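FAQ: What does a ligand-bound record look like?

Like this one, built around acetyl coenzyme *A:
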Amino acid sequence: MLNQPKTGVSVVGSGSARLSSRLANDDLSRLVETDDEWIASRTGIRSRNLAGAEESLRSLAAEAGRNAIAMAGLAPTDIQLIILATSTPDDLFGTASQVQAELGAVHAAAFDLTAACSGFVFALVTASQFIRTGTYQNILVIGADILSRWVDWSDRRTCVLFGDGAGAVVLQSCDRDRLLGFELCSDGSMNSCLNLSYAPEPQSLIDEVTVQQGTFQPITMNGREVYKFAVSRVPEVIEKALFRASLTAENIDWLLLHQANQRILDAVANRLKVPSERVISNMAQHGNTSAASIPLALDETVRAGKIQPGDIIATSGFGAGLTWGAAIFEWGNAD
Ligand code: ACO
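The answer part, i.e. the structure of the complex:
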């Protein structure tokens, strides 16, 4: 009889990219009317990293991916699928294939997935389905964004919030499933709260035929609505994912939220009654790096030796779409 494929999911490696430029709150006050006190007290952010002229979405995503593959003890040729969560590709046709080529992951299929700041959680869950069906054994999931390309640097309501980054994890098949529960949600009726929209410009080709040739416009956001949405829907979606995992918030070793705003992190932790020492935050150094924020914060906490094999992590992404989701998983695959 043939060996049955292992269809349990484990998260066995993490990685992130090192960026070349750093912009502190005081630097921002040279661009717009703001100051460190306003930004830090409303958001928890002190500085953010930005992609320099030599960096691309491809190069950041590949660096994060390479580090995650190395931590997993694998070679790029062991990877069978790469999912790149991003809203800021180098190429609208997709950047994942360029990452695949740069890594030398010659056996991997690769595609982009867009769900804004929820992108990493959506990609993690998507990748897991390929493992649960026995299709693939090693999958690289990357979250990477260069929002600095699309921020209006003259709009103080948004430009203080965002940074650039890339993080990645390797998912591997195993006997016991460590993806304990998940829940994904969307509400397009609230789409206008947060946008990076294409603005079409009609261009007549011949008398009867007009096409649209425009460009994307800088990020717009209704901050108050996004805040209200996050503090109500994120605790709810985590509780649903915990319910599917037959766990409660008391069982969580680490609460790993999309790093949007320290006040959102605190409000969600309060609602779930998770003590602050179990809440992962790198807001102060990175700001909001969109799809990168969760794997970047995970990687920093793993490499700091805080997250141990077997620790239960509740993660939640939320953002434009609107989209939001949660996943409960155990780190590593040690028995
Ligand atoms: N510096 C100084 N003053 C500012 C700044 C700034 N950077 N930005 C806004 N202000 C001013 C406003 O002009 C306003 O002044 P006014 O009263 O004279 O008009 C005042 O501060 C209050 O502005 P609000 O927008 O009401 O500020 P609020 O208290 O709501 O805080 C913030 C704004 C921090 C954006 C908050 O709404 C928030 O955290 N929202 C969630 C946003 C978020 O996390 N988005 C990303 C999540 S989704 C994703 O990750 C893509």
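Follow-up question: can I read anything off the structure? Yes, for example: The pocket of acetyl coenzyme *A is lined by residues 34, 38-39, 42-43, 116-117, 156-157, 160-161, 194, 221, 223-224, 226-227, 260-261, 264, 288, 290, 319-320 (CB under 6 Å).
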